[in-house]
Design goal:
The chain has 246 residues and is an alpha+beta fold. It is built from 6 helices and 14 strands.
């Protein structure tokens, strides 16, 4: 599968990078405990981030009109975002046109697991295999009269391709756990062990206290130590965009 980003002119200073698995708030958390959640870590790096070329601040007065959102540029810069839709929505316009393989869409959202105070990213699904269009990345203020800031080099957009129509091919259903007796038995054993482990965490000198947390999912094994599929991963590894010569 190929993902190509066509750059208009000089690209406006926008850069794209593979999304990193680390997060500043995870680094400073007590014991770096969030990194124990492998699904969180893998999701962090699932795709690519587009970085803000310059720093700027913005504030919204709470009203529906476009002029209710004011952008304050840093000296000597031109901010990459403006008020286009009103309703407290901050719009990033990028001179980038993405092209995916046929029947492949581009999922566009804010940086994964990067909460930002007073403003939240909006999400879009772009049919990027056929049109000559670029897209905007939009953030909506969640609180009025509160200034927000995007720093130069801060990610503001996260993208990854998805096969078109795959959602419609899925047949979802709910069933009692007893319908899968082997899974039910394994789940009961795991639940009992988990309960005991959490109890032992409170006991000074216990094996659970020394271990810190159960690492079955981290290691890709079930409760009995049986390995999972070879495709088990502990991080995502998106490739860097290569640059073609003009």
């Amino acid at each position: 599968m190929e993902l190509t980003c066509y750059v208009e002119g000089d690209g406006g200073g926008f850069e794209i990078r593979p999304a990193p698995s680390r997060r500043a708030w995870m680094d400073t958390a007590q014991g770096r405990n969030p990194y124990r959640c492998l699904p969180l870590v893998v999701a962090n790096g699932y795709g690519w981030e587009i970085l803000c070329p310059v720093g700027f601040s913005a504030i919204w007065n709470g009203g529906p009109h476009r002029d209710g959102l004011v952008i304050m540029e840093d000296p000597g810069t031109s901010p990459p975002a403006h008020s286009h839709f009103g309703e407290g929505i901050l719009t990033f316009k990028m001179p980038l046109v993405f092209r995916t393989d046929p029947e492949t869409d581009l999922f566009v959202q804010g940086p994964i697991n990067c909460p930002k105070d007073a403003i939240a990213p909006l999400t879009g699904l772009v049919e990027s295999d056929w049109g000559p269009f670029n897209f905007t990345m939009n953030w909506k203020f969640t609180r009025a009269r509160t200034a927000i800031r995007f720093r130069a080099g801060e990610p503001f957009c996260h993208i990854f391709p998805v096969a078109r129509g795959v959602l419609e091919q899925i047949v979802p259903r709910m069933a009692p756990l007893s319908e899968a007796p082997d899974l039910e038995q394994s789940h009961r054993e795991w639940s009992a062990a988990r309960k005991q482990f959490n109890h032992d965490l409170k006991v000074e000198g216990s094996e659970a206290r020394k271990a810190g947390w159960q690492k079955h999912y981290q290691r890709g094994t079930d409760f009995h130590g049986n390995p999972g599929p070879d495709s088990h991963r502990t991080r995502s590894n998106a490739r860097r965009f290569t640059k073609s010569s003009p």
